[in-house]
Design brief:
Chain lengths: 242, 415, 234, 400
């Protein structure tokens, strides 16, 4: 059973407060949407969870193991996988090799043990015909899928997807939808960062809203939607209210 | 050295506390949620300068580390080292003879100005193209070669040395332009994958090519030109006591203490004029403004209608020309070989990293500093042959310290 | 004036941030493009100005396609662009910044002088600070420098990308007032992309709402009373 | 195992056999033997540089410095270290169960010569005490250790640097090393260089034949052996997780770390491995040539190695090695100067100009090198077909 605890996270860059007292928990295979206007601190939060940057204060526990002090590769091994907003396929490596990297980083055994699993993943992503192509030969959408595939090979308990739907073709979107559902029903928690409200509301069972470093809402999407704070963050200052 | 141990132990003490300060201070500042950007440099400087006396209050009160504090600590380190050196080696010229020290310092500044000129070219290229040219030293070498071969050619033998300089400028400028058009322009078209690595290797290849092409054309014998402009004989205030200025055709002596050889003096004078011309060009002409605009914000410059391709070519050509001109002024100072560009470019790299990549004032200040350090190193180390051989090493020590402590340099915009 | 027809733009051929956007900016009006962030508002402006190459579609200025024209020449077609991040030359003085704006007619001294005066009349504070480094100015003043520089060339259409992002409330009101003045006094056509829905609607003449790289709603600003409709998907 | 892979093995094995039996024909031409040995030396350096730059994306210009560190460590050991069976009580020494490792004092060149402490101690040492120069393998071991140590230090230092800074730093590191070696004349003899003993000072018998210390056949096999061993090690590394990880790091450090790759460890490790191999090559080459001078560190040497690796194919060990061998032979073939009418063309320099131009043109127009595309053409020629075939098969299958 996955458990993520984020306690009183603060982050400032120089004088700029990017995160202020962010606290939340993830229990079990939840499907969570993380939204907020530009500059709200979503990327910073992701980078802190992932270990790429250290919080100014506060702690993060993943499955009762403290991870905010760990470097990214240890956090990944502890069970947190993420994608990046801009696709980051390894361009001069084959699709198969791309998939082997996380598997072999996790286990110190030979590659033959993972090739079968990699082929399964490729089948699922409808990419098996591309097994030996180089990453750079893939189209943007295929690179996006490849990134999702790498996460399956890492087999984390919590996945953070950064803008998984940005710019993708509707047909591809279905594949990603299916991916999310399947991974979720396999018992993994997923946090989706997206600007695509439609998807967020359809997919997620719980919504976190960040605004200029504050976590202003956390709960059922339909309730969050009508929260005055959230409305103000998105629609601007309402003069009638003040 | 009579009491080398004193100096050695002082060095060890400084290094030890510098390391302690450099490691502990950032952690202290980070834990207190303070700005850590200066903590490593500041901690190292204060640790090295004052040892535990300064470090403990620093850790307890953790004040904001301004550059003034760091500069003060730096000067204190220099002072401590100077005192330790004087104690260790009381008979050294650097200790006993004030005139010698003044002379060394002046010569350091004089040579530093020329280093600056060359580094400015490199930093100009970097600020516009985002590329470090590993062939910078070869343009420097070619500038000198052009001057030498013009000075011995039948056609230009009796021409004013300024004509030779012009020739060097034209040749290196055109070579720079041609190279940029042929090999670097493709970087902007998206045809080249991983452009940074491509730029490193292709400019390195250019260095290799130019060096041996020059050697194939002119051979590997050292050449040197005569003094461009011999001094007139001056004795001020009077011939009997010329304590203010006394010149012979090959040397100038100021205040009866500072003596500068003519070639260095003229080279620096030309460099100063060139620097002023460069400033005039960059700040007063339309093209100069456009270059500065591109270096500060590429997108905004393009929006204003400035063609980035033209500016890239121009910047590379001018950078090459500045290197060529600094070589052209120095061919009357040093013996010139096809390989002479290598240490020169290594030095230019040190200077631009020290000054902050892409910063023009940084390059100027860095050049002066490297000139001074080299002068102090060569002048004060007792074993002169060894001191001369170690000249490139001083630059490397500076480079390593910069990369370790403050990778953005003096005025760095970004790493 | 400015027409965008069925535009597909993205960093890859198959990952299109814009998937068939159609927009028209009518002469002498403020046309505002709204939408949650990430739907491709800024991308649209970048594509119009040539920083991104469209995969499909066309961009017309006065009925003439700009697609083959390099970015640095689009200014000559009467286009101007004010990006989201202040694009001022930080280590140049205010006056130099404005002069760079006059790059395309740099040899016409009389015109340069006239345009400088015009800008100083428009933003008197800039006259006082004209020798100061632009990087030392406040955020609002930097915006003024940028707008002033953009106006040096007498553009017909200005593309404005979130002009008040990161500015204090008082300053943003000033900036919006500036845009209104540009429309009313100078008769400029403005294509405004914004996040501040309420404020942007106040000054807009015509509104487009994008969703995920596609047109969702459009209509005169007066018809846009239901803010939530513009934003939440119902 | 597919057909291509098998073809690769066959070609590789045939190549190795050819290299092993080549001395049978070459033995009458010491010149060709010398060329072969030198080309193996460069092949080791070019392929290890390609592991560093092509696989791991660390553009170091200090590779020859590691080679020099290896060679000088071995040479200095040969000069200043002796194994004795009795204490000297004059030199600095370390006792190891009956054997003393004695460190001689530098006798100096520039200043008045200081007497050799061992020579003076001989008078007091017991009769019959054996004084032995350290064997070649000890020097090799020392060279490798020092190479690894410096690889570790440089690797740890440049870890966080971006490619431009890394290149600047390593070029400076190389120059500083050359300055130190040239300046510390009392220890290194400066430009006149340190003599090194032959690889097999007492000669060796191979295949029932006796070879003297100056014969070319033993060093041929020594260098070939080192070449094959290092290719085997690097090839194994490149195809194992190590290779996978360093290539992932080259492509995208952040993404690799997010997938669980210990970026820091592998970046340092690749420096250590390549530095060690370069150092080993330096030791063998130093013993073979018999003298080591600071001139092995001039930028030209590094430029040549880079040209070899780039022209061969930076992203493949084998291509880089083949490129090195071909270019080394071409450098020799192009040695003969000639006259065109009144102009005499000094080919010793012009050939370098040619390779400089070729390096630039290769980078500009054939980023993958000139040899590598041939190899990939053979090994990957069916990938495209495979993709098409798989796609067709998928399309033909009824939707699930």
């Amino acid at each position: 059973m996955l458990k993520l605890e984020v306690n009183n996270l603060y982050k400032n860059f120089g004088g700029l407060q990017v995160l202020r007292d962010v606290t939340f928990e993830v229990n079990g295979p939840e499907l969570i949407g993380l939204i907020g206007p530009n500059g709200a601190g979503k990327t910073t939060l992701t980078n802190i969870l992932d270990g790429a940057i250290k919080p100014s204060s506060g702690t993060v526990y993943l499955n009762d193991k403290r991870v905010d002090t760990l470097p990214p590769y240890m956090v990944a091994r502890a069970g947190l996988g993420r994608t990046f907003q801009v696709t980051r396929a390894f361009r001069r490596m084959t699709v198969l090799e791309n998939l082997l990297v996380p598997a072999m980083a996790l286990h110190a055994t030979g590659r033959q043990n993972f090739e079968a699993k990699a082929r399964e993943v490729l089948d699922f992503l409808t990419m098996s015909h591309l097994t030996n192509e180089y990453g750079r030969a893939l189209s943007g959408g295929q690179q996006k899928l490849l990134e999702l595939g790498r996460l399956l090979m890492l087999d984390p308990s919590l996945i953070i997807l950064d803008e998984p739907f940005a710019g993708v073709h509707p047909r591809l979107m279905e594949v990603i939808y299916e991916y999310i559902h399947r991974v979720n029903s396999d018992g993994k928690a997923i946090i989706i960062i997206s600007h695509d409200m439609d998807t967020i509301f359809t997919l997620s069972k719980r919504l976190l809203v960040l605004n200029y470093g504050d976590l202003i809402a956390d709960g059922d999407p339909q309730i969050v939607k009508n929260d005055p704070l959230v409305k103000r963050a998105y629609l601007g200052e309402d003069e009638e209210e003040g | 050295m009579e009491h080398g141990a004193i100096f050695g132990w002082t060095m060890l003490w400084i290094i030890f506390w510098g390391i302690v300060g450099g490691i502990v201070t950032p952690r202290v500042y980070e834990r207190r949620n303070l700005d850590v950007s200066q903590a490593r440099l500041g901690g190292t400087a204060i640790g090295a300068a004052t040892g535990p006396i300064g470090l403990i209050p620093l850790w307890v009160f953790s004040p904001t580390l301004s550059s003034r504090w760091i500069t003060a600590a730096g000067l204190l380190i220099v002072a401590i080292l100077a005192v330790a050196f004087a104690r260790a080696d009381p008979n050294n010229l650097c200790v006993t003879n004030g005139g010698f020290v003044a002379s060394q310092l002046t010569n350091g500044i004089v040579i530093g100005i020329i280093y600056s000129l060359m580094a400015l070219g490199l930093t100009l290229i970097y600020s516009i193209l985002g590329v470090v040219s590993f062939a910078h030293g070869e343009f420097y070498m070619i500038g000198g070669m052009v001057v030498y071969y013009m000075s011995v050619s039948a056609l230009f033998e009796n021409a004013n040395p300024l004509v030779w300089l012009l020739g060097a400028a034209v040749v290196t400028f055109l070579m720079g332009v041609a190279f940029e058009r042929m090999f670097l322009r493709v970087m902007n078209t998206g045809q080249i994958e991983r452009p940074k690595e491509y730029a490193i290797l292709v400019t390195f290849g250019l260095a290799f090519f130019l060096q041996y092409a020059t050697q194939a054309l002119v051979g590997a014998n050292p050449v040197k030109t005569q003094r461009f402009f011999p001094f007139p004989n001056l004795d001020i205030p009077s011939q009997e006591s010329a304590w203010l200025i006394k010149t012979t055709s090959g040397n100038i002596r100021l205040f009866d203490a500072v003596s500068i050889p003519n070639p260095r003096f003229t080279a620096a004078a030309i460099a100063v004029i060139l620097l002023l011309m460069l400033m005039w060009f960059l700040y007063k002409t339309w093209t100069g403004k456009a270059l500065r605009a591109v270096s500060q914000d590429q997108q905004a410059a393009a929006v204003a209608g400035i063609n980035p391709n033209t500016m890239n070519t121009l910047a590379f050509g001018m950078g090459a020309m500045l290197a060529g001109l600094s070589g052209a002024t120095l061919v009357q100072v040093f013996a010139w070989l096809p390989q002479v560009g290598i240490p020169a470019s290594a030095r230019a790299f040190v200077i631009i990293v020290l000054g902050g990549m892409g910063s023009l004032p940084g390059a100027f200040l860095g050049g002066l500093l490297v000139g001074l350090v080299e002068a102090a190193g060569t002048g004060c180390i007792p074993d002169t042959t060894r001191a001369a051989a170690y000249i490139p090493a001083y630059g490397m020590v500076i480079l390593t310290l910069t990369l370790l402590l403050k990778p953005t340099g003096f005025f760095g915009r970004e790493l | 004036m400015l027409e965008i027809k069925d535009l597909y733009v993205g960093y890859y051929r198959d990952l299109n941030i814009l998937q068939g956007v159609n927009l028209t900016a009518k002469e002498g009006m403020i046309t505002t493009v709204l939408g949650a962030n990430g739907v491709g508002k800024s991308t649209t402006l970048k594509a119009i100005y040539g920083f991104l190459r469209p995969n499909e579609g066309d961009i017309l200025v006065d009925g003439q396609s700009v697609l083959g024209v390099p970015t640095y020449e689009r200014i000559k077609m009467g286009l101007a662009y004010i990006p989201q991040q202040p694009g001022v030359f930080r280590w140049m003085s205010v006056e130099e910044n404005l002069e760079v704006g006059a790059w395309t007619f740099r040899n016409d001294k009389a015109r340069l002088k006239r345009k400088l005066e015009e800008n100083y009349a428009r933003f008197p504070i800039l006259r006082d600070k004209r020798k100061q480094l632009t990087g030392e100015l406040s955020g609002g003043q930097q915006r003024m420098v940028e707008i002033g520089r953009t106006l040096m060339t007498d553009p017909k259409v200005i593309l404005v990308d979130e002009p008040t992002a990161g500015l204090a409330k008082l300053l943003s009101e000033e900036v919006y007032q500036m845009l209104v003045n540009l429309r009313d006094r100078d008769g400029l056509t403005i294509l405004l992309v914004d996040q501040e829905i309420r404020e942007a609607l106040k000054i807009a003449d015509y509104v487009y709402v994008l969703e995920l790289g596609r047109n969702k709603f459009e209509g005169p600003a007066s018809e846009f009373q239901d803010l939530e409709k513009a934003f939440w998907v119902g | 195992m597919n057909l291509n892979r098998m073809g690769g093995w066959v070609v590789g094995t045939l190549g190795v056999i050819a290299l092993l039996v080549a001395p049978v024909w070459l033995t009458n031409s010491p010149y060709l033997m010398h060329l072969a040995i030198t080309s193996f030396f460069y092949a080791i350096l070019a392929s290890s540089w390609s592991l560093l730059a092509g696989y791991a994306g660390q553009f170091s210009f200090g590779h020859m410095a590691f080679m020099a560190i290896g060679a000088y460590s071995a040479a200095l050991m040969g000069y200043y270290v002796r194994f004795t069976t009795a204490a000297t009580n004059l030199c600095r020494e370390l006792s190891l169960g009956g054997i003393w490792i004695v460190l001689l004092n530098p006798q100096g060149v520039t200043q008045t010569n200081t007497p050799n402490c061992l020579e003076m101690a001989k008078a007091t040492m017991p009769v019959g005490a054996i004084i032995m120069q350290p064997p070649v393998w000890a020097g090799l071991l020392a060279g490798i250790l020092m190479g690894a140590l410096f690889g570790f230090l440089v690797g740890s230092l440049v870890l966080r640097l971006r490619s431009t800074y890394l290149a600047l730093f390593t070029i400076g590191f190389s120059e500083i090393l050359r300055a130190v070696i040239s300046a510390e004349i009392d220890i290194t003899q400066g430009q006149s260089g340190l003599k090194m003993s032959p690889l097999f000072p007492g000669g060796i018998s191979l295949f029932g034949m006796e070879f003297g210390a100056a014969a070319k056949v033993p060093p041929y096999y020594a260098m070939l052996l080192l070449f094959l061993i290092s290719m085997a090690i690097m090839g194994w590394l490149a195809s194992s997780r190590f290779g996978l990880f360093i290539r992932a790091i080259r492509e995208d450090e952040e993404a690799a770390a997010a997938l669980g790759v210990h970026v820091v460890r592998y970046k340092v490790l690749v420096f250590v491995v390549t530095a060690t191999i370069a150092a080993a090559a330096g030791v063998i080459q130093g013993h073979y040539i018999g003298i080591i001078t600071p001139n092995i560190l001039i930028i030209l040497q590094m430029s040549l190695v880079i040209a070899m690796a780039v022209i061969g194919g930076l992203e493949s060990l084998v291509s880089a090695a083949i490129g090195a061998i071909i270019i080394e032979f071409m450098l020799e073939l192009l040695r003969n100067s000639f006259d065109i009418g009144p102009f005499s063309v000094d080919m010793t320099t012009w050939r370098l100009v040619f390779f400089g131009a070729l390096l630039m043109l290769t980078l500009r127009f054939r980023r993958n090198g000139l040899i590598h595309p041939l190899i990939t053409w053979f090994s990957r020629r069916n990938v495209g077909q495979e993709t098409v075939a798989n796609r067709a098969a998928a399309a033909a299958a009824p939707d699930a």
